[in-house]
Every structure is written in C-alpha cells, then in structure tokens.
Amino acid sequence: MTAVPASTGGAAPYGARHVAIIMDGNGRWAKKRFMPRAFGHKRGVDTVRDIARAARDMGLEALTLYAFSSENWKRPADEIADLMGLLRAFIRNDLAELVSNNTRLKIIGDYQVLAPDIVDLIEDAMARTAGNTGTTLAIALNYGSQQEIARAAAKAAAKGEITPEAIEAELDTACLPPLDLLIRTSGEIRLSNFLLWQAAYAEMWFTEVLWPDFTAAHLREALEQFGARERRFGGR
Ligand code: IPE
Ligand code: IPE
Ligand code: MG
C-alpha cells in the first residue's frame, strides 16, 4: 500500500480531511413510498454520486462510504443480488467521471470474495484511478471492522510486533488520512462494525435523514458543526 499522503492540497473544509458515512435508511425510504427496497437502494446510488461530487468540490481528501457490511450477507439473496447489480453498474457507469475529475477509487474490506467479474471491475477501476491526486473515494465492501483489525494484527504479528502503530499500518485504511468525522443517516445510533479502530478520536454526527434524502447541504451542515467542535485527543 502507498504511504499516508501528507496533504493533497485539498481545502480541508472546516478542518476536515477525511469523512466517513454509514449510508443507512434505503429500505425505510422505499417503504414510506410503498416501493420495493431495491428502489431505495437505486436512489441511494444517486446519493452516492451526488455526495462524491460534493466531497470533491469541497476539497475533502478522503470520503469513505459503507456500502456493504460483512453482516449484510444475512439479508435475503434477492436483496444481495440487487445490491451487487447496483455496484456493477456504478463502477461501469461512473468510472469515466472518477478518472476525469482526478478522484482515486479505493476499496476497503474483503472484496476479493465477491463475484469474479466484480473483483475484475474493482481492480481495473482502482488501477485506472491510482495515479489521481484529488479526493480519494473509499468504498467499504464486505467490510467488517473487527475482521479488519484481526487481519491487521495477524500481519503485524507476522512482522514481529503487535503495537498500535504496527496494527494501524496494516489496516485497510492505512493509505487514508486519519478519520475526522463519522456520519450515520437514518436515526440509528450505532457503528455496525464500521471503522471501530479509526473512530477512536473521530467526531460523530447522526441525522434522522434517510440516505436517499441526504444532500450536499447536509454534508456541509455536518462539516460546519464539526468545525465548531473542540477536539482534545485526551489533552487539555
Ligand atoms: C442501507 O440501507 C444500505 C445497506 C445496508 C446496503 P438499508 O438497506 O439498511 O435500509 P434500512 O435500514 O432497512 O432502512
Ligand atoms: C450498516 O447498515 C451497513 C451499511 C450501511 C452498509 P445496516 O442497516 O446493515 O446496519 P444494522 O443492521 O441496522 O446495524
Ligand atoms: Mg439499515
């Protein structure tokens, strides 16, 4: 993996370099409209596109989006198939824009076990955007933070030392700046196995807004509130 970038020269809006979002509430959004859950997921992808553009326009260094957890395999097969279909379509349709606007795509999580054609699409997309120097869009796929930490600890042990620094260097997020702000939509107040290590000193922002209704204005509101907070990191 590449080293942590010092700064890509982004504007660091309100002092934030790295924002992560637990994109939740697609199913409830669809249910309110008497529509199938797949409709909510489809609108959720539109929001991903909008928020990725907003992050780039604001000059964020990194945006990490929780798209599919290691526990989401518990869902019915047809819903999993819908989500994988949307993922395929997203990478196929949006790659050109990512390349042309200098966005670097990164996947965190154990994506290698996904369908072979998706793995190929992902690896092609990462290779084609690897040299981009703008915002990094990190998408968490088959991601579970406990699994990530266990993998990282095993790698650190194999190299001889298990220290916080050694584990951190082996996390999937090692090539991203430190996490500043963690957002969750849909009113749920929990982490659902997302970025447990990285969130140690991140600020948290929870909103009742369902993910398909989340806009750039909500992201800006979260960043504004982040900018007004005092981060102490244990000091005084
Ligand atoms: C988030 O929406 C998308 C994924 C977890 C893939 P949900 O599908 O969890 O929507 P709700 O929570 O049922 O409303
Ligand atoms: C977390 O949402 C996972 C993603 C957003 C991808 P879930 O909807 O799966 O979380 P729980 O089950 O409500 O905790
Ligand atoms: Mg949910």
From TrEMBL:
Gene3D superfamilies: Decaprenyl diphosphate synthase-like (3.40.1180.10). InterPro entries: UPP_synth-like, UPP_synth-like_CS, UPP_synth-like_sf. Keywords: Magnesium, Metal-binding, Transferase. The active site is at D24, N72 (proton acceptor). Its cofactor is Mg(2+). GO terms for molecular function: ditrans,polycis-undecaprenyl-diphosphate synthase [(2E,6E)-farnesyl-diphosphate specific] activity. Mg(2+) binds at D24, E203. It comes from the Bacteria. Substrate binds at residues 25-29, 37, 41, 69-71, 73, 75, 184, 190-192. Its EC number is 2.5.1.-. Binds 2 magnesium ions per subunit. Homodimer. Catalyzes the condensation of isopentenyl diphosphate (IPP) with allylic pyrophosphates generating different type of terpenoids. HAMAP family: ISPT (MF_01139). NCBIfam families: uppS (TIGR00055). Belongs to the UPP synthase family. This is Isoprenyl transferase. The lineage of its organism: Bacteria, Pseudomonadati, Pseudomonadota, Alphaproteobacteria, Sphingomonadales.
